[in-house]
Records
---
Amino acid sequence: MSATDLLYSDPLAAATHAAAELAKRSDIPHHDIALVMGSGWVGAADALGTPTFECDAHELPGFSAPAVEGHSGKVRSYLISENGKNIRALVFLGRTHLYEGKGVEPVVHGVRTAVQAGCKVVILTNACGGINRDYSVGQPVLIRDHISLTAVSPLSGATFVDLTDLYSKRIRSIMKSADSTLAEGVYVHWRGPTYETPAEIAMMRTMGADLVGMSTVPEAIAAHALGAEVLGISLVTNAAAGITGEKLNHEEVIAAGKAAASRMGALLKQTIPQLI
Ligand code: 8IG
């Protein structure tokens, strides 16, 4: 059976295979923490230091080539050492999105691979639209909770998983201790690839949403269901539709991401030793 067929028929087995291949190629049998870097977050990975291993994600079974500019599709391993603690961080530069139309399995394959590789903590980053009028472009926001407007779950069958503490309170509190300016917000998952209409943004605001984007939620659910602790960080790279009267464009999003990413990378490097 091909790796892609296995991904759809037995996604966890596919992730186990990918984790074994990663261990073989990198010669690193175990990772502790995973980070998924979304649009514009590559600079944050660079702030983690020099990777001890890097490959193209699609060299690992079940991964496909990236579809979006700013998503490089690399997998890296970093060694973060502090106070005699050696932490292995597995970093995905880029991700697969629901709007690519391949289904949810490829979307969550990275985090499942990470958990099968040993990761107990999964940090999901993204670029998103700001619904909350208090947010400014370039501002990082911790995800406190989400609203799924796709209603797509990576899980099937009678597995009734509690999502009360999906975005770990423990980790959010560590992050806020390290940077007291960090805001928290509710993230709406929107399938895309179209952005929202102004009326849809007004609806989301009424629902209690602060942020809107096209990622993170399925990965958070898949990682949590496998027992990992999840942190979500959104970088507000544009005001959501209808707020400023300007149209949304992808280039603007990438530029805003780059500016804030190195600051977030330094914050992540500083806090990672406290998370494991
Ligand atoms: I970056 O305004 C980014 N991603 N749905 N809406 C949605 N996704 C986004 C947006 C946005 N900005």
---
Amino acid sequence: MVNEATLEINQAATLPELQEIRVKYLGKKGLLTAELKTLANLTPDEKRIKGAALNILKNELETLFDAREAGLKDAALTARLSSEALDVTLPGTRFQTGGFHLLTRIIDDLATIYKALGYQVVQGQEVETELYNFDALNIPSWHPARDLWDTFWLTDGRLLRTHTSPMQARFMQAFAPPFKIVVPGKTYRFEAVDATHESMFHQLEGLAVSDDITMSDLKGTLEEMAKGLFGERTKIRFQPSYYPFTEPSADFAVYWENPRTGTSKWLELGGSGMVHPRVFEEVCKLRGDTVYAGKRGFAFGLGIERVAMIKYGVPDIRYFFQNDLRVLQQFRGELE
Ligand code: PHE
């Protein structure tokens, strides 16, 4: 019986199978149990001898069962562990992440530069009235300069602002000097679209007003901006210009050394000048007081797309707004 049982125990492949064999030998109606029951009919001497032998057998079988059970449990665990194993060295799934648009990034860079110079960043509204877009900026309706800023009109007489300059008048109407602000935002022009003109684009307006601001403050400020945008070696140049709301007026250009091509040239960035006394007068009228009488200030405005096109060699302004990820993703690496 021992040999037979040993063989069966070792051949049991699963725990339930092993349990069946255990019942077959050691269960209430098991083979060994039956043998033990026959002891009752024997003489005391026979009983002692056979009983001892059967007990040894029983212990032996129990040891075998326990060992096999432990072995099977072990094997099951090993199998389960290897089937559930996770290879942490496998490459993971890369999720698509968003990024900031190049223009957003340049607006952020400009805001950082100007905040370091003590400026507040404020925003205006894209739908404007004629009063703020033109009249308060010394551009009355008969003025030929209105032709410079042809725009989209709403049916109620309002318009899409042609520049960020309306915020000059709005800010001065609401706040007293001295102050320094920059105003980034969207602007609109009724224009034939081509590689350098879009009907919607972005500007950054600057306005600083106090008692004694001069044109050299303006130039120094623009130079700081240019260095922040294009590097320490950048220079800035003024050229005489005309804007109804500044006098004198100057367009400014930056000297840009292109690291990709090694070439340098002057590139027009925007317009600027000293705030025209008539603008202060208009603002005083709007406010109903005289806090802007006799003040001095400078103002400037530049095109954000132009900065991006120069700095990153984007050849066509339309690329910014076509949502072509092949274009936009090129500039994403620099965002993080
Ligand atoms: N608003 C002008 C434009 O859009 C730029 C400008 C701003 C010029 C401030 C002078 C002062 O062309």
